[in-house]
Amino acid sequence: MNIVSSATLAAVLAASLCACQQRPDAAAPDREAASAIDTDDGEAIAPPSDAPASRSFRCEEILVASRVDADGGPLTLSLSGRRLVLAPEESASGTSYADGQGNRFRFGGDTATLTLHGDPARTCMPTTQVSPWDAAAARGVRFRAIGQEPGWLLEVGDGDRPTLTAQLDYGERFIEVENARRRPDGDGFEGTTTDGTAVRLDIERQACADPMSGEPFEASVRLRVGDRRYAGCGAFLDD
What is the pTM assigned to this prediction? Predict the structure, then answer.
C-alpha cells in the first residue's frame, strides 16, 4: 500500500532528517528552543492549576503529547512512537501521574517534569510542535526508524505488503520498496527497489536509545541496502 507519492514522502523524510539527524553542535538551536515557552501568538502560556485535558510539551529532546480523558482519570502520554498510560498519584505539589515501571509525569507551575524508567528527570515546556512520530502515525505509517552515522530515516506503511521508504546517508539517497514482504523469522521486512537493490529490515523488540539524543525507543533495528548496513532504533506506531 502506497501511503503518499514518492516525491511527497521524500520531502517529509528529508525534512525529518534535517530536524532530527543533526550533529550535536548543529542541534544546539533546537536545545535552546526547548528553554522557551512556545505558543501561536508568542505569548507565554499560563497553565491551569490542574492537568489540562490535552497538551503538548518539549521535554528536552523528546516531544510529548499528553491527554487526560476524564477528571480524575489516567494520563496518556505519546512519545517516541509509543504510549504510556499513567495513573494519578498523590503529590505534595502539582498534579502527578505514574505507573509501576518507574515512569512519571508531573504538572507544576509553568512547566512539567517527565521521568522515564532508568533515565534522569527531564524538564518539559509547553509547545505547539507535533512529534514526527505522531505525524507519521497520522499519515498511516505503521513502523518508523532512525539511525546515526550516517543519519538515516525509514518508514513502513500499512497492510500485508506495505511500501517501505527510506532516506539514507543524511538524506542524500532515497529508496522505495513496494509490496515489501514480512520476514518469516520475526518482525521485519524485505524486498527490492525498482532498480533491483535488495533491502532487508530486521526489527528486534528490545529497548534502544538514540546514540546522539539519548531518546528511548522500543525496538532495535538493522537495515541492509545492497552491501550497505545501517543500525538504529524504531517504534511500531500502531501498538
Answer: 0.74
